[in-house]
Amino acid sequence: MVKEQSNDFLEERAWLSSICDSQSTEELKNKYDNWANNYDTDVQKDWSFMPSAIAKTLSQLLPDKQCSILDAGAGTGLVGEALAKEGYTNLTAVDLSEQMLAIAKEKQVYQSLHQGNLEDSDIFSNSEKFDVIITAGVFAYAHAGEKVLNNLFSVLKEEGIFLLTIREDYRQEMQTALEQLSWQLVSEEAFPIYNEAKLMYLLALKKAIIINS
Ligand SMILES: C[S@@+](CC[C@H](N)C(=O)[O-])C[C@H]1O[C@@H](n2cnc3c(N)ncnc32)[C@H](O)[C@@H]1O
User: Fold this and answer.
1) Which residues face 95 on adjacent strands?
2) pLDDT band at 210 (very low <50, low <70, confident <90, very high)
3) How much is the mean pLDDT over the chain?
4) Dihedral sign, CA of 156, 158, 163, 169?
5) pLDDT for 101
């Protein structure tokens, strides 16, 4: 787990410094379980623009509203709600935290919801692949890293779209891992976040067709 460096914008946001200080996956899960009831309110100011930005970007890249979408690290379902508003109907949620998923379930936008750790390579059955995978707020300090990226890549269909948000400093940590996989950057937007202290990127990558020789 890569740890967050202390900074002014973190001091103003106790929730952000708390989750990014987690020392283990178990600790992170417990923190999200305890935070679930207040999550939507606490992140409103900094994050409310992002779920709809994700849904809009996806509708430009893949207008087929029946495509299969995995919301990996779905949390309380903010992204699922925005996707449903945009007309997407085939949504699967996965998250570490049962309590975050319980809130997501109440929103009634996911066809199925699963508790699990995205670091486990056997979390999906071998045959299950998605047209789209979205990770919003998941590639972050003390959250997901290269292992999760590789697991998700393996359940993305060829020519499928991987949409992720990633902060500028964590993007540098992940750059090599991102570049090692067979996909192409098809969209990149940058949004100032946390009172403009940081940039948050919204990236879309399209998986290449694998040619077996
Ligand atoms: C910042 S929240 C983002 C939630 C939601 N995507 C959103 O945009 O509001 C990060 C979520 O990722 C989940 N998460 C972090 N690491 C995970 C892992 N290894 N496996 C599954 N879920 C994970 C957390 O439980 C949490 O719900």
Assistant:
1) 115
2) confident
3) 93
4) positive
5) 98
Q: How far is the CA of 86 from the centre of ligand 1 (A)?
A: 22
Which has the higher per-residue pLDDT, 51 or 124? 51
Res 1: pLDDT: 58
Closest C-alpha residue for ligand 1 atom 27: 75
Q: How far is the CA of 213 from the centre of ligand 1 (A)?
A: 38
Backbone angles phi, psi at 189, to 5 degrees: -130, 150
Distance CA 46, CA 213 (A): 47
Please tell me the pTM assigned to this model: 0.94
Which amino acids bring their CB within 6 angstroms of ligand 1?
25, 28, 32, 73-75, 78-79, 95-97, 100, 117-119, 136-138, 143-144, 148
Residue nearest to atom 12 of ligand 1 (CA): 73
DSSP for residue 23? -
Q: Which two tokens stand for residue 209?
A: 């067709």
Six-digit token string for 17: 């410094």
Which residue from 143, 164, 134, 53 is spatially nearest to 97, judged by alpha carbons? 143
Fold annotation for 2-207: Rossmann fold (3.40.50)
pLDDT at position 150? 96
In 3D space, the residue among 1, 6, 51, 21 whose CA is nearest the CA of residue 200 turns out to be: 51
